[in-house]
Task: structure prediction
Amino acid sequence: MSSYQFPEGFLWGAATASYQIEGAAEDGERKPSVWDSFSATPGRVLNGDTGGVACDHYHRYEEDVKLMVQLGIKHYRFSIAWPRIIPDGRGAVNEEGVDFYKRLVDCLREHGITPHATLFHWDSPQALENLYGSWQSREMAFDFADYVTAVVSRLGDRISHWMTINEITCFTHLGYAVDKEPPHAPGTRVSSLKQVWQTSHHALLAHGLACQAIRTISPARCSVALVDNLSVTVPIHESPVHIKAAKKAFHTCGENGGIIFPALTGAYSPALLEQLGVNAPDIQEGDLETIHQPLDALGFNIYTGTYVRAADNEVGYEFLDLPKGYPRMHMPWLNILPESMYWGIRHISETLGREDLPILITENGCASQDEVNVKGEVIDTDRIMYLRQHLKSAHRAVSEGYPLKGYFVWSLMDNFEWAWGYDRRFGITYIDYPTQQRIPKASFDWYRECIRGNRVV
Ligand code: IFM
Result:
């Protein structure tokens, strides 16, 4: 039977992030994050867009929870904004900021939806940028742990699924660049690659300290995860020689060797360290133990991948450039490689040797050039095509016994897509920004049917 049925208990959800949807940048005593400053700087964000209003979710969260009910999800992943909780980055806790998340979480729970809270999705307090340059300083890790303590001690009675940090590469390696202005994210021009790797090392440390803080403070048993967008190597075809090449290449693809490796194995990949030489970060005694915390799950964000084949060269593999005209969604990097879902899951289990670790797809989705038609509908069949192929690939992983436990679509609604502003729409709900009207797209109905049948439709 080719019904693509998922096992009973498979978790279906949707994901968002604070700066991308909340708006209300000055409400409730919140102070600026680095993204407020970055987006206010001319030329940084497409069309000069900012997250100042975004989807106004801060004021419309009840309507948005109704949307989740309509969709049929029982799990919702959102993030908590550090500058709402501790507006100066360190020091006094702003209870008004905490209250917003209490209201949101209570509303979710009243509707039978389990909250999964990410503690950091890139909106760090500007005050810490001014004080010590954010992730350039080791102090950031300790301030983050204090913020996490403040959150978990106030919300731990309502939330038992925690995710520490989202996509370390994106706010470190895309935000700190050597001898040029980093184009994509808030950060700093630095003078060596070592300094860039130092920022991600500090973020890993922040993750480790946060895990310890959550486990110490949480009043009940809870689940703790890291969320990473590891770079996925996909064998050009599934013959042993290319599979072997893809596994080897996984170490040096993107930032894998210095982010997912230390987080899940307790060591930077030797292949990466050899490549980096003097540019490897300084690692203090005890850091790797702190970073390598026991986790209840890995959150895996997956959008695309890189083809690899075996090669007769020193390393035994080569990364393949895509041909002109290779199909992609509405982002320059969003090449359509649905097999990356399966191979990413398999690499976590096999290449990283973590077959014990449950995996959640914490983001998967795409940008499309959505339009509202004369009937007032958005018929995004291209998004359905993309999502359906990825879910089939997830189903393959489950049916082969890999420990995939759930799936969160990115995103519940269109939102502020960072340096691309509102120009790129990733939602299964269309946001008409001038009126803030929510219009469920065709992909929303398709996803609801998948959830209803616990299968790919
Ligand atoms: O919108 C982002 C999200 O914040 C992090 N992961 C990738 C998404 C699409 O670019």
In short: The two ends are 13 Å apart (CA to CA). Residues 241 and 310 are 6 Å apart (CA to CA). The longest strand covers residues 114-120. The chain has a mean pLDDT of 98.
